[in-house]
């Protein structure tokens, strides 16, 4: 629990109290963990693995709103406002999650307000990312949208070192397409083009962004 941003700052006794109310559940890759429109009152915290948050467009195309990994949470929206689930949550790999029921979570928040502050900080960060995504999906051309998706993945899950960013496991090309509002073919073509232009290097699932600042400057100025 020490490694979970939501609970990391709590005293040991407070963490122990939370454990009494947590259940753990496993999902295999591609399992749907939450369905959009379902009713729900539990909060999920990712212990192991990755999930994608998706909605379907009018034409039935999957749009990926976000990818969340270890230590991150989902399901807080329905828990807080009592509305139905706002999106689908699908396992991108085998996953283990901690689940907390609404009443337990709310009583924990009341006794430890720091959790509410951490939750609000994370929600503010998610709104910022969504605002950026709206901007680039509506303004940018396909090349820029793919570049922005690579930047987002780099910022969320890459390792920064000496101006380079290493992404150990790039999402599947179809998932990157669904994050960028483009096709898998365009992702494939753009990755080759970025490699030819010296922006990136690829080896299997690994991608290295060779000069993060330059890539960011070159593509964000074109919005
Ligand atoms: P809830 O609406 O209960 O169920 C779906 C969950 O997906 C939602 O809570 C959030 O936890 C998560 N979610 C919805 N939209 C986004 C987004 N734009 N970025 C990250 N997570 C989201």
Q: Give Rg in angstroms.
A: 19 Å
| Spatial shape | globular
Which residues form runs of ≥5 with pLDDT under 50?
none
Residues in helix, %:
40-55%
> Structural class per helix/strand content?
alpha+beta
User: In total, how many beta strands?
Assistant: 12
Mean pLDDT: 92
Strand content: 25-35%
Oligomer: single chain
Q: Give the topology string: H per helix, E per strand.
A: HEEEEEEHEEHHHEEHHEEH
Ends: how far apart?
41 Å
Which ligands does the model contain, each kind named once? adenosine-3',5'-cyclic-monophosphate
Kindly report the spatial arrangement of strands forming the biggest sheet.
1-8-3-6
Count, helices? 8
Q: How many strands, what sense, and barrel or not for the largest sheet?
A: 4 strands, antiparallel
Describe this structure in words.
This protein is α+β, with helices and mostly antiparallel strands. It is built from 8 helices and 12 strands. The strands form 3 sheets. It has a 4-stranded antiparallel β-sheet. It has a 4-stranded antiparallel β-sheet with strand order 2-7-4-5. The protein has a 4-stranded antiparallel β-sheet with strand order 9-10-12-11. Strand 11 (200-203) and strand 12 form a beta hairpin. Helix 5 (142-157) crosses helix 6 (173-180), helix 5 (142-157) runs antiparallel to helix 8 (212-220) and helix 6 (173-180) crosses helix 7 (184-196). It binds adenosine-3',5'-cyclic-monophosphate. Adenosine-3',5'-cyclic-monophosphate (CMP) binds at residues 34, 40, 53, 65-66, 74-78, 85-87, 89, 126, 130.
